[in-house]
Amino acid sequence: MATKTLMTLEEFERLPSDDGVVYELDEGELVSMTFPMPKHARVQRALLVELDAFLKRSPLGEVLLETGYLLSSDPPTLRGPDLGVVRAGRTIDPEARIEGAPDLAVEIVSPSDTASGLLRKVQQYLASGAHTVWVVYPDNGQVHVFESGGQTRVLRREDVLTEPDLLPGFSLPVAALFE
Q: Which regions of 91-151 does DSSP assign to beta strands (E)?
């Protein structure tokens, strides 16, 4: 059986940042990320535009793209969701990793993602303080919504994506993500 080589947060921070590779830390294990395909980027852009416009009208927080969130120091877990929404009033040092999960984490599924890997991320976000996690499936036009209270919903193209507790007044037809 192979042994995992674990890395500290300090070792992670010393990795070269100009080698074109994006990494996450999963309980000390280095995970390399692949560049997304255009389908992924289009969904990400659609969500960014809608969430950003909503948060400008209703200043409940801010949306951040591919930002590192330190979910745990021991073992070190650093994740970078495709989008994260952080509630207003939460202090963010623009020069440091954000401690804890975003209040809303969004993962857009890529061909290289596995079901077990996605579920692990969802569980890590929720255990680290996320209110909600959206997992967006561009290939089948679905959004799986995981809430901190344990509720899960599957939304299809004909449904409307809302987040009444975290983003009251926000609504987006799911189909609009895939146009």
A: 98-99, 104-108, 132-137, 142-147
